[in-house]
Amino acid sequence: MKIKKILVSQPKPSSEKSPYFDLESKYGVEIVFRPFIKVEGLSSKEFRQQKISIGDYTAVIFTARTAVDNYFRLAKELRYDVPDTMKYFCISETVAHYLQKYTVYRKRKIFYSENGHADGLMPLIEKHKKEVFLYPVSDVHESKLPELETKDINFRRAVMYRTVSNDFGPDEPFDYNMLIFFTPSGVKSLLSNFPDFEQGDIAIGGMGNKTIEEIKASGLRLDVTTTPSTPSMAAAIGKYLESESKAKK
């Protein structure tokens, strides 16, 4: 069966130069960007149940822009004025620059991993181990900084947002030939929305070990994933469409 319509479970790219748009023009497919999951922030009442006072912390660890948004949102709701002395430790330069949305960017208080990974951030945290760290996370987080547990770091995880199913409406068509997932939660949401889902000829793609594990554990067939030769999901989809095109000839 020819792939005609692909659901990519991510928000639509903001750049017109996205490789996904190139796939549409090259292979004549329609790509729909629709997350199976969405993030919603905890209310201040829900947050208080964790018995965490954000004013007790002198530094914050951010591993996602969503964490930045919800930290400052909750601070406002809790009527806590984040002091200028607060230090921020970010998983990447992108997250660090995103802080400019809420605070003046100063190198003396904003630190980030040069390589965008935990092994680049932990040495910075260890250099400032006298700080008391708050680590905003989601309710289904997988720690990106497991070394925090083994190092002598004074920190506390704080659940500030949750991942929930982005339900399909009763009249919303589900006529896709390929489904692409990036999180285990997205796979679970598919089966929550469609408990009688049967894969059949629908191609399923997944990126990341946890996502792939969830696809297989759910009894689904994995058809598309990234490889060293196709490191991005767009490239992996392109390779699949190319092989399908050759098979039809």
UniProtKB/TrEMBL annotation:
Q: Which GO terms describe its molecular function?
A: uroporphyrinogen-III synthase activity
- The residue stretches assigned to a coiled coil in this entry are none
Pfam families listed in its UniProt record = HEM4 (PF02602)
Q: Where is the Tetrapyrrole biosynthesis uroporphyrinogen III synthase domain?
A: 25-235
Q: Which processes are annotated in GO (biological process)? A: tetrapyrrole biosynthetic process
Could you tell me what this protein is called?
Uroporphyrinogen-III synthase
Q: Origin, by domain of life?
A: Bacteria
Q: Which SUPFAM superfamilies match?
A: HemD-like
